[in-house]
Fold:
Amino acid sequence: MRKIVALIGLCCTLSYAQPTAFKEGDLIFQNLKCGPLCDAINEVTYGYEGLNFNHIGMVIEHEGLLQVIEATSPAVCITPMDQFLNKTTEPAYLGRLISKYEKLIPQAKAFALEQLGVPYDENYLYANGKYYCSELLYDAFKSANKNKEFFKLYPMTYRSKYTGEYFPVWEQYFEKLDQIIPEGAPGCNPASMSWSKNITIVGPIVQ
Structure:
């Protein structure tokens, strides 16, 4: 009996260790370690089950390979899968559209590809001709959904979820841009997207 239990445990361990199989349209949620700015994003957002997510990209097939399209500095680009996953030492998480929405993926991909080279939106303002990571995917799936909202926009906040006060890094960040903090302006972020009822968080990505 002990041998059977041991074998079952071994099988479960081997199964869990298998590399994650991706498919087009998958969303990859990451918690990047990019210094004060990434810490500032985590300070003011809530991710799925309390996880921190400050970056997101979408898996697409490009040039015969599964790669990731993302809005990152300096512009929207396509990044090789291994390079994207190696941006952080923490496990990334896989989000997958529920089956009834998979039909939206080709048009969402087409829209995202049309944005290649569009500058990164360091101002975090929706519909200003630039894109930050979650904003790109918000618009891509909205376009694919006959211009109806697929993910949601929320009033953006730059106040700490712990103190309710403006997080100092954000005050410094927008001061350098000579921009008023866009508190309450509509927007989105990877953490809020991870809560969407239109996707399933499959779990951590195994490489």
User: Anything to note?
Assistant: The chain is about 30% helix and 20% strand.
